[in-house]
Amino acid sequence: MATKIVVLGAAESGIGAAVLAQKEGFEIFVSDFGNIKPEYKEMLEKYNIPWEEGKHTEEIVLAASEIIKSPGIPEKAPIIKKLREKGTSIISEIEFAKRYTNAKMICITGSNGKTTTTSLIYHTLKNAGLNVGLAGNIGKSLAWQVAECNYDCYVVELSSFQLDGMYDFKADVAILLNITPDHLDRYDYKFQNYIDSKFRIIQNQTAEDAFIYWNDDPIITAELEKRNIASNRLPFALEKKKDEKAYLEGSNIVFNINDPFSIPQGELAIQGIHNLYNTMAAGLAAKTINVKNEAIRQSFRNFQGVEHRLEYVATVRGVRYINDSKATNVNSCWYALQSMKTPVVLILGGTDKGNDYTEIEELVRQKAHTLIFMGLDNHKLHDFFDKMGKKTFDVQSMEAAIKTAYENSVKGDTVLLSPCCASFDLFQNYEDRGVQFKEHVRKL
């Protein structure tokens, strides 16, 4: 009888894992404690994969030889606790997919900048003519692509939750952009647990593999002192201090790695200091797999950017509206505020993940004249920000947030949605939050 695999969670990663498991000859069952979206039910029916929703039938789940767990399911979920007690192997879809492909893996993690950097690398490799797939937190699931496509290389965005379920997986190129406190509610409110999760990006690497990291990040540099790093280190930083392979020299980004080259900062399609770092990481990744310098330059000039990340929406009555819904932590909001050149009406709030707002305190004092708290529970925001004496408003819908912003902004202002928080109290996800922001702005 075939080994029984149960997939917990029937969204993008779970469905992809189920399709690959079936193709590889496993007996497969998919179980989702919530409701499965119609498009995913269609996929399950198309491949004749048995499934259930609204429950986890324990006699089926606990009988599995291996569990492929969707990243959104926390360790404290009762079914996961029972599986752990039983000693059942629990892995992520990414770990499972890698068993069935020899494609090169370029993997990106970090608290901020993952999606932009991943998208920029994919754009660069695709433009250079490589047979490349985009996977992880973005694009189609890696497992589905391994089952249905035949790529030579994958660019994979990895969250800490995905990394937690990866054990034998090895990245050929590992990129660690930065580490700031995030998702602490999932890590027992211990920052070190989250740091350890992020550093799983380099597990199993050898001297043949590349490790690209931000050498200005104090958390990363402190951790490097404590760890034995087997990989080939390729640090990047704002200025060259010692061994940096990418850095800023005057107004040029220099890539000092096999056949060095530079690109003027002003030619980049995406601006802002955070995007300098993202560009450095992407350039080093492209260089490690021998993409030609001119192809990299061209891609950096024509990259379109990422939806919901400092995305310009419209100007209404002389007020600019910026959608930064992807800013689900405080550090992301810091970069957004830091890039603002005009007075700000700031919309923030949502599901708090153990946030410390001290990081943005000075920027909020300097740049924001009005704060709109959008969430079911805003008391933590009031406790921190009310002392500043800014105008504050509480809203519980995007429609109300935009109406309030419109009424409290004047020509020359910027209305910035940069929430610092997850979206699940009022929205399906950060994309839904960003889409609603754009819809209501365009109705003004």
UniProtKB/TrEMBL annotation:
Domain Mur ligase central: residue ranges: 108-285
Coiled-coil stretches noted in the UniProt entry, renumbered to this chain: none
Pfam family name, one: Mur_ligase_C
Keyword rRNA processing annotated: no
Single GO MF annotation: UDP-N-acetylmuramoylalanine-D-glutamate ligase activity
Binding sites annotated in the UniProt record for ATP: G110, S111, N112, G113, K114, T115, T116
Biological process annotations from GO: cell division; cell wall organization; peptidoglycan biosynthetic process; regulation of cell shape
UniProt family annotation: Belongs to the MurCDEF family.
Protein name: UDP-N-acetylmuramoylalanine--D-glutamate ligase
Source species: Paludibacter jiangxiensis
